[in-house]
Amino acid sequence: MVKRAGKNNFQQYSPGMGLEAVDDLTLQHALTRAIDAGEISVAYQPVMDLASGRLHGLEALARWQYEGMDVAPDVFVPTAERIGRAGQLTALVLDQACSQMAVWNGLLGHRNLTVAVNISPAELADPTLPARVGATLHRHGVDGRQLTLEVTEAGLLGDRKSIHDVLATLRGLNVSLALDDFGTGYNTLAQLLTVQLDTVKIDRLFVQDIDRDPQRRAFLEAMFSLLSRLGVVTVAEGVERPEQIEVLRSMGCTMAQGFLLGRPYSGEDMTPLVVDIGAQTPPRPAPQRLDD
Ligand code: C2E
Ligand code: MG
Ligand code: MG
Ligand code: MG
């Protein structure tokens, strides 16, 4: 049932690879059990400020092992959503991320580092979200300015009034909102910007050929310039080559994330880097509170 690529050499489940071997129901049951037991861990990937080269913060990424093998979040997150466990998954990741931030805050002696937590689209219209987020921040003594919630564009297209109310309450906690995977959806930026965003993360697919494809480059250049004029922070995802950094910096992209700058690691493994380069992280201003 579980494929192993040699001894101690675990293969990762990813869409279209080996997953057919485990039937969906088995996976659903195993995931339900894991979530109920809190058996979800978190990996942290650095987000770097392009102008200063400093560490801005980290993105928290959920990790789950099934029978000793890593299952890709692209597989188990949609499953969690389907079985109605998205909120519980977010709660587990958020709690660990805040607990880890409290440790890093203590080691750094400041609360300038940020952490981004991914939420499922339906959650942004869930009126109970802000209170749960607020309670978690409070429990760990983490500043709301340190937290960004990331949502894909499907999350911005739900009930307008509900989203507006949730966002207003989150802003009261100084929590920011990022649009994730921009460029992969079907809606225009103008449509997406009807919800006030603090950050837009440009999907890896768009960033990939940025130094090779002049058309893509021109498109992104216009995008960065527009977003910066609107006061929106831009993050390029999936940066793997130094040439991409040069181009992104010259185009006014604010931040970058990718294997070139750091792979996702456990909190413990990330700590030396955080202590080393996080010491100089400048404070982050509270999110703007313009009303749309
Ligand atoms: P995402 O939020 O866009 O996260 C970035 C993904 O890109 C991560 O994959 C990260 O490991 C990967 N990545 C980063 N840099 C590079 C690079 O240079 N090259 C390549 N090829 N990949 C890179 P990961 O951890 O497998 O997560 C996949 C997606 O699963 C995430 O995409 C996010 O949408 C979702 N996800 C992860 N954790 C959570 C969670 O706690 N809750 C929810 N709702 N979704 C999550
Ligand atoms: Mg994300
Ligand atoms: Mg993304
Ligand atoms: Mg994604």
Sketch the major β-sheet.
Answer: 8 strands, mixed, barrel
Give unreliable regions as ranges.
1-11
Q: Spatial order of the strands in the main sheet?
A: 1-2-4-5-6-7-8-9
What is the overall shape? globular
Distance between the termini: 52 Å
Structural class, from helix and strand content? alpha/beta
Heterogens: ligand C2E, magnesium ion
Protein name: Bifunctional diguanylate cyclase/phosphodiesterase
Domain EAL: 24-278
Topology overview:
Blueprint: H1 24-36, E1 41-49, E2 55-66, E3 69-71, H2 73-82, H3 86-108, E4 114-118, H4 129-140, E5 147-151, H5 160-172, E6 176-182, H6 189-192, E7 199-202, H7 204-207, H8 214-229, E8 233-236, H9 242-250, E9 255-256, E10 265-266, H10 267-277
Parallel strand pairs: 2-4, 4-5, 5-6, 6-7, 7-8, 8-9
Antiparallel strand pairs: 1-2, 1-9, 1-10, 2-3
The structure holds ligand C2E and magnesium ion (3 copies).
